[in-house]
Amino acid sequence: MIVAHDFNLNLELYTLPAWAKTQVEKRCNVQVFDIGECSPKDVDIFWGNRITMPQLQDLPNLKWIHLGCSGTDRLDLNQVLTTHAFSRSSEILSVPVASTAIMFMYALGRGLQWAMDRPDRSTMDGRLDSMISVPHAKTLVLGRGSIAQEIQGELGSARCHLMPARRLSPLGIGGYDFVVNALPLREETREVVNREWFAKMSSSSYFINVGRGETVNEGDLMQALETKEIMGAGLDVVQNEPMDASNPLVQMKEVLATPHIAWYSKNYWADETELFARKLGRYRSKPTTGWV
C-alpha cells in the first residue's frame, strides 16, 4: 500500500521525522512518500493535515484519509464519509490543547501579561480586581468536543460549563471569569464570537481561543480589549495564519499568544505513529467507508 503524506512544511513541527516514516513502513508494511513525489493514481492512503476536496478528485484510488490534526474544515466531511474511510488524531491532541487553554487561564489570571512588560508591583495598580484564583473561577467553554471535555475534566463540572456549538448564544456569559473557545470551524461558526459576545462578558473576564481563529471577529475582539469591555485574551490561533508577530492583535499588552502550537508536544510523533498504525490495523480488518 502507498501512503502519501503532506507533513512537508518548512517547519520542524510540521515535518515527518525520518525515524517515524521508517517505523510506520516497517510496522505497517506500507511505503510512505511525500505527496509530491508519488503518482496520484498509486495513492491508497493519505496521512497529513492539509488535503482539500479538489485534491481528492486527483487521487482516484484513495481509500482512507487519516488527518494528523483535529480540524476537518478543509473537507466536506459528510461527503468524505460516504466515499472514503476516515480518521483523525483528536484523541491524542485534546490533552495538550486543553493544557494550553488552562495555561492561558493561569497566566492571564495571575497577571503575567502585565508583569512581562514591567515586573514591579506598581504594574498591577488598577488591575488587582483582575487577579483570579483559577480553581475558584467560573469557566465557560464554547464547544463540546474532546478538547472541551478535557478542559472540563481538569477543572471540574461544577465550575466549568460547556456550550455545544448547536446552542451558541451570548446570553448568560456575563458571570464567567474565563470564556474558552474550542469551536470547530463551520459555516455557522465563522466569526460567531463577535461584538455582541464581548459586550455581554464581564469586564473582569478573559477570552481564550484554542479552537479556530476564523470563529472570532478579531476587529471586535481588539475593540473589546481597547475599550476594556474584557480584561484580556489568550490566543493560540488567529484568522490569518501563520501568526505574524506584527499582527496588531497579538502585540496588544492585554494579549498573550502562542503561534498555533497548542496541539504539539515532544511526544506527538511517537503518539501519532502509534495511532496511525492502530487505525490502519482497524481499517484493514474491516475496509469500508466512514469513521475508522
Largest sheet, in brief, is:
6 strands, parallel
Number of H- or I-type helical stretches: 9
For the biggest β-sheet, the strand order reads 2-1-3-4-5-12
Report, as a whole number of angstroms, the end-to-end distance: 17 Å
Mean pLDDT: 95
Shape: elongated
Class by helix and strand content? alpha/beta
Low-confidence stretches: none
Helix content: 25-40%
Q: What is the oligomer described by this structure? A: single chain
Query: Secondary-structure element sequence?
Result: EHEEHEHEHHEHEEHEHEEHE
Protein architecture, described:
The protein is α/β, with parallel strands linked by helices. The protein folds into two domains: 116 residues, NAD(P)-binding Rossmann-like Domain (Rossmann fold); 164 residues, Rossmann fold (3-Layer(aba) Sandwich). A six-stranded parallel sheet has the order 2-1-3-4-5-12. It has a six-stranded parallel sheet with strand order 7-6-8-9-10-11, with helices on one face. Strand 6, helix 6 and strand 7 form a beta-alpha-beta unit. It is elongated and about 65 Å long. The mean pLDDT is 95.
